[in-house]
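Re: the 125-residue chain
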Amino acid sequence: MARDVIRKENVKRYIHTALKPKTASNFVSQNLPMAAMFLKNKALSWACLFIAVQNYLNDPYVKDPSDESTNSAYKIIFALVALGTAYLDLIFPQVGGFVPSAAETVADVAAEAAIEVAETVAAAI
């Protein structure tokens, strides 16, 4: 049989250190305002503002002193920017008014072309 190849001076005892608990609220509070801005979704903007305020109020109780993540006040500001982006059409309303759909435009052009063709044929006769 093979002899024992493990030397006792090289063996170190395993000491378990638990990982820091990671929550989804940090991920959501950082990325939800960006999604609300891109989608211009009012409900999503209000939700990210409420989550940011909740994180701000819970911050003194749950924050680890060694945690170097974004300050909760910045998350509230970012959520307010997302809310402002969602309501941007109230600040700068669209001036153009009614914009016809492509089908209506094609139908109007076809009708005008038919009238022109009929007038040209009538003038030729």
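The two ends are 115 Å apart (CA to CA).
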